[in-house]
Amino acid sequence: MSAHKYELMLIADPELDERALKKLVDQFLKVVTDEKGSVENIDIWGRRKLAYEIAGKNEGNYAVVNYTAEPATSDELDRLLNLNESIIRTKILRKDAK
Q1: Cα–Cα distance between 64 and 21 in angstroms, integer?
Q2: Cα dihedral value 46, 13, 18, 48, nearest 10
Q3: N or C: which end of the chain has fewer CB within 10 A?
């Protein structure tokens, strides 16, 4: 098994302020660093209007993260994100796929 590059985009509850959003993202990325992965970039976009309503919300807080990790670590990150009520939607893309 070898590590791969990933891009995580998440949309969090619009009620979170930027500091709370950053803290939430950092909390999830601990899974990556604890498993010997690395986080290259965290880009907090802040509150944006959603293209369509999700879970009764018209806005969401966006964050995009580039990281390198084992596939199992990425799966665990995805699982934890889906369990959190503050996270409206996530998408993890593998960046180094041929």
Answers
A1: 12
A2: 20
A3: C
Report which secondary-structure segment, H or E, holds 44: strand 38-54
In sequence order, the 6+-apart residues with CB closer than 8 A to the CB of 71 are: 1, 4
pLDDT tens-digit readout, 23-58: 999 999 999 999 999 999 999 999 999 999 998 999
Integer Cα distance of 22 and 37 in angstroms: 19
pTM, 2 dp: 0.91
Q: Where are the domains of the chain?
A: 4-94
> Residue 20's Cα: distance from chain center in Å?
14
| Residue tagged 């699982």 (tokens) | 79
* Strand order across the 57-69 sheet: 38-54, 57-69, 4-12, 87-94
